[in-house]
Every structure is written in C-alpha cells, then in structure tokens.
Amino acid sequence: MAAAAARWNHVWVGTETGILKGVNLQRKQAANFTAGGQPRREEAVSALCWGTGGETQILVGCADRTVKHFSTEDGIFQGQRHCPGGEGTFRGLAQADGSLITCVDSGILRVWHDKDKDTSSDPLLELRVGPGVCRMRQDPAHPHVVATGGKENALKIWDLQGSEEPVFRAKNVRNDWLDLRVPIWDQDIQFLPGSQKLVTCTGYHQVRVYDPASPQRRPVLETTYGEYPLTAMTLTPGGNSVIVGNTHGQLAEIDLRQGRLLGCLKGLAGSVRGLQCHPSKPLLASCGLDRVLRIHRIQNPRGLEHKVYLKSQLNCLLLSGRDNWEDEPQEPQEPNKVPLEDTETDELWASLEAAAKRKLSDLEQTQGALQTRRRKKKRPGSTSP
Amino acid sequence: MAKAGDKSSSGGKKSLKRKAAAEELQEAAGAGDGATENGVQPPKAAAFPPGFSISEIKNKQRRHLMFTRWKQQQRKEKLAAKKKLKKEREALGDKAPPKPVPKTIDNQRVYDETTVDPNDEEVAYDEATDEFASYFNKQTSPKILITTSDRPHGRTVRLCEQLSTVIPNSHVYYRRGLALKKIIPQCIARDFTDLIVINEDRKTPNGLILSHLPNGPTAHFKMSSVRLRKEIKRRGKDPTEHIPEIILNNFTTRLGHSIGRMFASLFPHNPQFIGRQVATFHNQRDYIFFRFHRYIFRSEKKVGIQELGPRFTLKLRSLQKGTFDSKYGEYEWVHKPREMDTSRRKFHL
C-alpha cells in the first residue's frame, strides 16, 4: 500500500514505539512501517542512518540491540542483525565500505561485517571509548574516522583503520572563575566539511569548536546558548553556522566564525530529539517529544513550512538530501484504491499506457491515494515536461 | 433637527443637542471632507457627508453627545429587530427555523490536530505502554506523598491536610528544606507511586508539582482560586474514608490524555459507591477545575450535591519526561505564552 510511494518520502522518522514513519511532504502523507506488523516499545528506534547505495536503504537501530535494514524502494524491512556487547541503547550507527559501525551507551564501539542476514556475532573490531557515550558520529569525508563523546566522556576521534588509541583526545577547558572543574557532557558532534574541525554541543548549553590540526587540544571556540541542555545539532548548508536545539524546544542558529547567535526558530513545544538540514536547500527538519515533525525554512524568510502530527514520540530523523522534491511521474498502474474497480477500466488503463502517461500521473496525484503495485517499478525513461 | 430615537429626559439637553447637531451639520458641510454634494442639507434629516465618522469631531463634549445619541438609536433598532423576530417566530409557530446557536469561545475552538480518536491504534498502543501502564493494568495501587515548599504557612498546611483526606492512601510530610531530587529516590524505595508538592508564595499556595514515580512524567501546574473547606459556602460535612469516584471532563488532546491519566492514577481503582463521593477534574479552556462533592439521588433524574473538600484551579505549565529535574530533564511540553497564546480560540489540553 504505502510501499509503492515509500521511495518518495522526504523524511524518515523513528519513534519510541518502534515504528518507522515515512513522511511525504509533497502529498502530505505519513506512513507507518514496522518490522513485525505491530508496534513494540522494546524496539524503540534510537538511531537511523542511510545504508549502502545512496538513499535506498536505511539502517534502523532499535533499543533491543538489533539493527534492521529497511529498503525505501520496496518499503519493507529486509532483514536484521543482532549486535550484542555492552549495555544500553545505540548512540551511533554508521556504515562504511560494507561494514556496520555501532556504538552503545556503555562505550563499546564495534565494527561488524555487513552481511545482511548473517547472524555471525563476531565483530571485526572492538573499541572501548569510555562509559556514558551520548553520540558517535562518522566523518562523511572519511568513512573510517568516527568521533565519540558523552557525559564525563571527552571528545575523542578514532581512526578505525589505525591504532587502538584515539587520534585526537580533547582536553577539558580551564577551571572556571571559581576555580572549579567544568563538567563535560557532549551531547552531539558534527564534522565541519572542508576542514578537520568538529563542533560539539553540550548538556551545559555550550557549543564548542575543536580543531585537531591545531596544537591546542582545548576548544578553539566556545559559545553558550540558553539555559537548558542542548540535545541536537546540525550544520546549515552554508557551512558557517550550526542549528542547535535544547530540551525546551528552542532552536537557535549559531554562527561559528564569530560565535554569535544569528536567530531562533519558533514552534517546538517539547525537547528536540532530532535535527537535520537539507544539504542544499534552506530547510530544516526537527522532531521531538511533542510528537510533531516540523520543517522550517532557515532563511528568506525564516519560518515554519510544514508541520506534521505523528502520534508517537519521535526519537530521530533522516532527511532525504535529494534535490528534486517533486514525485517522479508514476508508472501507469491500475488505479484500484477502492477494490471495487472493475477489470474493464484496468484494461483501458493498460491500453492507454504510453499516450496518457502525463494525464494519469496528474489524476493519481490529485486522488492522493496510496496505490498498490502489481508490476515491479521501472524507472521512467523520460520525465514529463 | 429632530433626531430619531432621542430619549433624553431633560429638555435643556435636547435643545443643546439640536443646536449642536445644527452646528455639526454646518461645520461638516463647511469642511466638506470627501463630499461631492455639499449643497442644501435637508434640515430634518441627519445627513453627513460620506466618509465622516463621529470620532473625527474634535470637541470632546459634542463627540460624546453624538456618540450617546448614536448608541441610543442602535439600541432602539436592536430592540425593534428582536421584537420583530419574536413576532415572526410566534406567527410561524412550529415551522419556525431553529434558534441559531450563539458563538462562544468553546464552540469556536480551533480544531486541534492532536485530538485523540478513540479508534486510533497507534495512540492506544502508546497509552497502553506508557508510564501509567502499571497502574491501568492494576499492577500497582497508588500511594501518594504530599509535601510543600519549605516553611509553609497556615493556608498551605491546611490545604495539604484537606487534600490528604480527599486522596486516599496519601501521607503528608513536612518538607524540612530537603531537595526533591533526594526525596524522590527515598520515595521510590518506600513504594510511593506519586509525589505532590504544593508550592507556596507569600502565604498562599500557587503551584503544584505532580510527579509520577518511579520514572514517570512530572507535571508542573499553576494553582489559583484555592478555597479551603471553611471558605466554601453551603458545604457538607467532612468527607469520609470511602474511596471516591473520579470524573475527568474534556481532556481531548493527546496532551490532555496524558494529564488526565496522571490524575486518574492518583486514586485507587475501586471506587466505593456507598460513600457517594466524587472528585471532578474539569478541563475548560486549558484550566482544570478540581471539585470534590458528595451526591445523592433524590429520584431517577434528580441529584443533589454537596460540595465538600477543597477546591482549586490548575493550569499546566510544563510536562517533563522523567522524574523531577527542571534543569536537565527533557520536556514533553512547555507552555510558551508568546508562541502558544496568540489565538484566543486555540487550546492545548
């Protein structure tokens, strides 16, 4: 049903009840996908990342320590693997050269050989990064480089092909004006493109920039925002600023060259759990505990574009980075949203395939139906002008 | 010039009005703002050039006069229209169209997309497995700890005592300046299911923190209009030890459902109908009214009620996931006045 249109979904959201939701903003539809047919709280989605092959596969990390493979082309869960070791839920999930990298709360980082349905439980590599990990992030430019950070767990950069020691270990800032040690709580990490720098946001409402290339291990830049822990962070398309969200639902854009606050975004009522910006368009997707997915426009003008109520608490999201947000023209299919369609119309549609392709796509889009597929989908040769 | 609907009592004023009106007319004609035909205004009719409004008269006394006269005229017209309508209705008798329903803020309410549909499976599953599941599955029965902010005054203390008679299986403890974060693990160890903290400011209770234990959500309310038992007029005798019934009114949205379940989990499952006591949480326009009554059925359709117990009004300020941790906790919902209170017809509970 929703499987056919799954590939055109713009945002994929994971919930606390174990449902993966695909949202199509063009058609304003949201569809639920579960592995077992029924939602289960034990399978709460804690991490999402794109799988191999562009954006056709999603890796879903669940609270019961399984990583499920979901195909956006077919709209079904294809397989899962159990990733034991350590305690706690997944804090980071990444995919590199056919291997799967997972990191859990207690600090066990493992690299698994990615055979889809294989249940071999031997990891290729295991690292202990320290307890209380809040985030593990992979460098998009170097897939074998990952960074980890957490509560009382300083930022460390690991090279999975290199030694067992971290490549860069951040140092805590100086004692504050009362000569007290400043506590560490790195909640989210992002790699800045075009350089070796990293940005982190902390639970003590600080945003810090680290530069492994420079001799100092302390942060190069530090700013604060608000009074509440910052829970999520994302880079903007320009590359000069980040957008952070805190536990009160406040979103702010912070410029990294000066450390200034550029502006805020309104609308969220609950803690921000997931944030992602589109790589080229000025769009930001945010989800949180108030059960609503929001798409904001970041510049000219800044404001809310879409708001979708999804009935469960949202944990993480993936925004499709594709440029074309319109749907591709549909294959001529039997439009049987209502099973009462008679076969005569089916034959009629089939015979009108080539000639009336554009008309059909318009009709189906205006119907707004979730269609079933009979034939395997072929990529259309020509897009409708 | 005779103005229709001139109801003034004193003759002197009348003449003054006439004089004023005449002067107005001349002035307006003289000014001629936006008027194409200034010409001869019929002396009897109150014709002003178009585009002229009473608020443009600079003289306050005359302006007030013109306004009162206009108002009286409006009132008379309205009365006449009503009478006419009433006559028509009577004339039509049974065939009269039904009376139009007056608009109220409640029935103009903006439809909230988070309104829970009773057939929705996802929401049903979410509720069946949330933090209150153990109460609603009858695995735990409530045990409440009631306390206040530090050094409470008389009103707050008495409110706590009265609340503990209303809520069965509740215990009042004096807050000896202890931190809530230290109290909570101790409560969990002693099998308490809920913690109520009544906050006090300037000798009156003004806030309520309701925290479900062991790891349930914490709701923070503003409390107003607190009436203790002796301040309630025509009240009944003190409530008995019977377990009351609960009424939760008008909690329609998803957030409302969560709060409603929170209130429901304060009371034991098995209401003792012999006691004929009922606690009501009525939500209207985001304000929750708490009342405690004793009812008696005088006949099949007639009920008599006596108000017992304290009465107060609550307004939700925030709902935090997890036990009380206002600095580092994650919030499910925070009330933001400048963003959420922009429309008078939009409510969240």
TrEMBL record, chain A:
Pfam families: WD40
Domain of life: Eukaryota
InterPro entries, alphabetized: WD40/YVTN_repeat-like_dom_sf, WD40_repeat_dom_sf, WD40_rpt, WDR74/Nsa1
Subcellular localization, as worded in the UniProt entry: Nucleus, Nucleolus
Annotated region (Disordered), positions in chain: 323-345, 360-385
Coiled coil: none
SMART domains, A to Z: WD40 (SM00320)
GO BP: any one term: ribosomal large subunit biogenesis
Keywords: Methylation, Nucleus, Phosphoprotein, Repeat, WD repeat
Biased segments, Basic residues type: 372-385
A GO-annotated cellular component: nucleoplasm
CDD domains hit by this protein: WDR74
Assembly and interaction partners: Isoform 1 interacts (through WDR repeats) with NVL; the interaction is independent of RNA or pre-60S ribosome particles. Isoform 2 does not interact with NVL. Interacts with MTREX; the interaction dissociation in a late stage of rRNA synthesis is required for appropriate maturation of pre-60S particles and depends on the ATPase activity of NVL.
Described function: Regulatory protein of the MTREX-exosome complex involved in the synthesis of the 60S ribosomal subunit. Participates in an early cleavage of the pre-rRNA processing pathway in cooperation with NVL. Required for blastocyst formation, is necessary for RNA transcription, processing and/or stability during preimplantation development.
Protein name: WD repeat-containing protein 74
Organism: Gorilla gorilla gorilla
Classification of source organism: Eukaryota, Metazoa, Chordata, Craniata, Vertebrata
From TrEMBL, chain B:
Alphabetized InterPro entries for the sequence: Brix, IMP4/RPF1
Chain ranges of the Brix domain: 142-325
Keyword Oxidoreductase among UniProt keywords: no
Position of the signal peptide: none
GO biological process, one term: maturation of LSU-rRNA
Domain of life: Eukaryota
Protein's name according to its UniProt entry: Ribosome production factor 1
Organism annotation: Gorilla gorilla gorilla (Western lowland gorilla)
Gene expressing this chain: RPF1
